[in-house]
Amino acid sequence: MAIKLFVSDIDGTLLMPGKMPSEKNIEAIHKMQKAGIIFTIATGRMYPATVPIVKAIGVDAPIISYNGAMIRTQEKILHSDYIQKDLICEIVDFFQARNFHLQTYSNDVLRYPAKNKLTDMYEASQKTLGESVGWEGLKKFTENVCKLLGLSDIPEECSKISAELRENFSGRIEVTRSAPMLVEIMNKGVSKAAAVKILAQKFNIDISEVAAIGDSDNDLSMLKVAGTSIAMGNATDEVKKTCKFITSGCEADGFAAAVEKFILA
Q1: Which of 46, 42, 48 is nearest to 61 (CA)?
Q2: Alpha-helical segments (H) within 139-236
Q3: Which residues contact 249 (CB under 8 A, 6 or more apart)?
Q4: Distance between CA atoms of 112 and 214, rounded to whole angstroms?
Q5: What pLDDT shows up at residue 265?
Q6: Which residues contact 159 (CB under 8 A, 6 or more apart)?
Q7: Neighbour-count burial of 120, counting CB atoms closer than 10 A to its CB (0-12 exposed, 13-18 middle, 19+ buried)
Q8: How far apart are CA 82 and CA 158, in angstroms?
Q9: If exposure means fewest CB atoms within 10 Å of the residue's CB, which of 28, 98, 232, 258 is most exposed?
Q10: How many CB atoms within 10 Å of residue 249?
């Protein structure tokens, strides 16, 4: 069946961390668009961190951000799933008690308790700046929060706290990982898959006519539901097991190679 909608992850898929998409990858996107295929992205990033990329590649479709908690264009929000204030405050207390770094995104503004090496690294990779507001400050900025993000430079700590979150907030939140140093928290039921289904329905496209490409565990849900699924060469083992196809690594423009081999051919 012909592909009508192609959905791509950003970091580790469309581009290397801290970089912009390569000319080869941009060219591949334009070829798909000329062939009548709608191209969009589904990312764990906050929406403002997608805007420079969207402008660079010329995306005119709605963007999926915050791991599926928001679908929007530059003009308006088409879908959102915000975390309730009480739950946000509970999660903030949970992280503070463990002295584990946490970030929030209220009304598309990045905030954290205090500036440190983790915030410096994150801001550089996302090309955005946040605000230091203290732990109590995080509990004051609770309007329109799509996602909370825990960070550590020790992957084992992220694995441990992910398990603790699932146990302590069972049935209330989704916990996923887009990188070893990240712990991403959304409302229960939020995923890239759910957002891809919503977007496909808006375009009147059957899910079997959707292709998705990614590299990390937060991509698994959309890769499982898409009619055509492609894993990057640098993807996790679980992603590679899930996908029908595997391309080369991000650093070698595996995205462009996948488009040429599995979509346009």
Answers
A1: 42
A2: 155-168, 192-202, 220-225
A3: 232, 233, 234
A4: 28
A5: 87
A6: none
A7: exposed
A8: 23
A9: 98
A10: 16
